[in-house]
């Protein structure tokens, strides 16, 4: 594979200067066009150490407007990054729509670091390749343009670049104590790189292999390949409209919510006794999780007026405020709309040992956005798989994930709506939108049915909470949290 990148390609100075001027003008043109079209661009710069990745990135910033480019050097991982799921560091660095994000050190880096290990885990490597393809497919489906480059040099050139023998203008400023180790691992790096390139060379995010022995040829080749990708995307015709939402054959049939016993009740005295017991247990478990550096995530979804707020207060009332972060979501902000819909949830995940409580969550994609038409049929349909991938990564990081749907009957919701209207200090809780949503009860019920069917997995099951009686609902949530944490921590 790599022998095709060792043929001696080069450019003389005159040819370089001639092509550079044309390239610079066109790169700027398409950078501005994609910015106007709100297309986010991701450039992955990969290759063996000493291939000149940093120099190429510097050149791209020189040719284009650096105000629309963010360069992310992710080869050094901080404690903050290591204490969260691996892809957190990449999600938080994704460019906004209309901007360019260059990644030096990317989701491919740890695939190559196994070359320094004595006995790499093949199953883990295969799983990581699958995750990469899933991640890139998720982004390109959302409109991202991903352009990936592999820069290749021979082993001798790498040795020279990683030593003090290289000409001053070509020396690698990052040469450190591990340079010798990387040179020794060169054959192994190419072995793992070949598999990674072949497995992740997809139609939506193809690889561009560049011979990097000659600096001038390398820079022009990368620039022209990037230009071609940007021009093709800019001139691409709009995709055909999504197919209409098919009539749900389950309409009129029982749903999973019909299995919830909404008549379940708990007496006030029994409630107070159990509340104190479970809150004490949860308090101890939260500190135990902190000592063991285990995080937990709790997701609260449910009908309007189902009691999410009061249930969350009973949970936070049991946990030291230093150990949790509560996030409440409504309509996305302009900044959030400029990213993939999962971006705003990834960025709020807490470090190891702390809890993240989500009042509304990523499930809005398959609930509100589906029913109200804010997401196309194609968008919310593929969201099930995207959500499962997201939650799988949380669980892989040893996060304890609990998901609650608070269910009440239509009659109970109506009673609570009327109570809110009649109670001065609760009137702010009821809006015209709440009344309008009642008219779409069946549509939301079917959306919940699909949500549970597609995303209630062995590692991230849904808990359907009987919410007509608030006492019962609160205890069901607290007891579930305690049981899940006790099972995970013990």
TrEMBL record:
Any GO BP annotation: polyphosphate metabolic process
Region (Disordered) location: 231-253
UniProt keyword annotations, A-Z: Transferase
Domain Polyphosphate kinase-2-related: 11-236, 266-487
Native source species: Parahaliea maris
Protein name, per record: Polyphosphate:AMP phosphotransferase
Molecular function terms, GO-annotated: polyphosphate:AMP phosphotransferase activity
